[in-house]
Design goal:
Blueprint lengths: L29 E8 L9 E2 L3 E5 L4 E6 L5 E6 L3 E2 L4 E2 L3 E8 L8 E8 L5 E7 L3 E7 L3 E6 L3 E6 L5 E6 L9 E3 L2 E5 L4 E6 L5 E6 L9 E3 L2 E5 L4 E6 L4 E7 L4 E7 L2 E6 L3 E5 L6 E6 L9 E3 L2 E4 L6 E5 L6 E6 L11 E3 L2 E6 L2 E7 L4
Antiparallel strand pairs: 1-33, 2-3, 3-4, 4-5, 6-8, 7-8, 8-9, 9-10, 11-12, 12-13, 13-14, 15-16, 16-17, 17-18, 19-20, 20-21, 21-22, 23-24, 24-25, 25-26, 27-28, 28-29, 29-30, 31-32, 32-33
Length: 361
């Protein structure tokens, strides 16, 4: 199934994963503004900017939908099958795809930059193995990792490889760019901060389980979850672990909010931990597993648990339910919701729902 995720550029502190929509009020009544229906959903989340949602379909077509009303702006036959979610910058939407026989363990790949306004291909790069660990972009470069352990930085204007490094590990988590570092977490449990210009390792830390979610960075501390059930806080300035806090199951989604670090665990609980010591502020059980990052606003965090037909907003202060959004059908997606211009976009099995407040202008 398909859900929406914003680009991994934060608005709270140095970087905090999905950007926060400062005008969004999640606790107020929200109603369906528009619905986009399709039977060609994929497991990859679309990219979004302030005006457009870029929606990858199972057929290899990328749909550009107007965020305000869901109408089609353009569609592009990107070629091949998508191998990870797209990302956007001020000019382009970047897509990674794979080709070859489905039985191949390592399939070849392509990386493309498409014009955000027209869908025309601006450049394409052929890769020996497809990008499968997500993409991230900054002012100069596009970053990604392939299934064979290669980590790349591409010139985002030309597609040429700026640097690449090979590791004897598999990467599945979407990387994060923050300042001079790009962060990659591996299935072997290693998180690395690499210099964005050279690819050199600035620091690394080994957890006891796979890292499958994007980290969050605030005030020179990196927060991340692991399949070992822990949330970790690593100080970049001191190059040491500050604390770790155990939950009841794998943690694949963390995000920083003004009063702590919010972690979603596969034990069906959301945890708010203090930034400095990792002490428990509150925890709240939800009606299904949570693997996707929530979207956050000043008044709450919106989660999309598995196997339930509603999205749930928790108050950041005490973790109590502040709102619910009926989806009309059971959620089966592990991808996250996204907010665009005070709209909340959530994937359902047969399309995409956009919610807005009655007071939205």
């Amino acid at each position: 199934m398909l859900a929406c995720l914003s680009t991994p550029l934060g608005s709270f502190g140095k970087s905090d994963g999905p950007r926060r929509d400062e005008g969004l009020i999640l606790s107020q009544p929200l109603s369906v503004a528009w619905r986009y229906q399709t039977d060609q959903t994929t497991d990859f989340t679309p990219a979004a900017d302030e005006h457009t949602v870029f929606f990858p379909l199972a057929s290899g077509v990328l749909m550009a939908l107007n965020a305000s009303d869901g109408k089609l702006n353009w569609k592009a036959e990107a070629g091949g099958v998508f191998s990870t979610m797209p990302v956007v910058d001020e000019r382009s939407v970047f897509v990674a795809q794979r080709y070859g026989e489905p039985t191949q363990q390592l399939q070849g790949g392509t990386l493309r930059a498409l014009s955000k306004t027209t869908g025309v291909t601006l450049w394409m790069n052929l890769l020996p193995v497809a990008i499968t660990a997500g993409l991230s972009v900054d002012a100069a470069a596009l970053f990604g990792a392939s299934a064979d352990g290669n980590v790349y930085a591409f010139d985002k204007h030309t597609g040429l490889v700026l640097w690449s490094t090979h590791y004897q590990e598999e990467f599945t988590a979407q990387p994060l760019v923050a300042g001079d570092h790009v962060y990659f977490g591996s299935k072997a449990g290693t998180i690395r901060a690499l210099n964005v210009k050279t690819g050199e390792v600035v620091w690394q830390y080994k957890a006891a389980g796979a890292i499958q979610g994007t980290p969050a960075v605030f005030d020179n501390v990196v927060y991340f979850g692991s399949n070992d059930g822990n949330v970790y806080a690593y100080s970049e300035s001191r190059k040491k672990l500050l604390w770790h806090r155990r939950t009841g199951a794998s943690v694949q989604a963390v995000t920083v909010v003004p009063n702590g670090v919010l972690a979603a665990s596969l034990d069906n609980f959301a945890y708010l931990l203090s930034l400095n010591k990792g002490s428990l502020v509150w925890r709240r059980q939800l009606p299904g597993r949570i693997s996707a990052r929530p979207i956050t606003s000043a008044d709450g965090a919106l989660f999309t648990p598995f196997s339930t037909d509603q999205a749930i907003v928790l108050n950041l202060r005490d973790g109590k339910t502040a709102n619910t959004l009926p989806l009309g059908e059971e959620n089966s997606s592990s991808a996250a919701p996204v907010s665009v211009n005070n709209l909340v976009l959530i994937t359902i099995p047969h399309g995409l729902l956009a919610f807005s407040s009655a007071t939205r202008k």
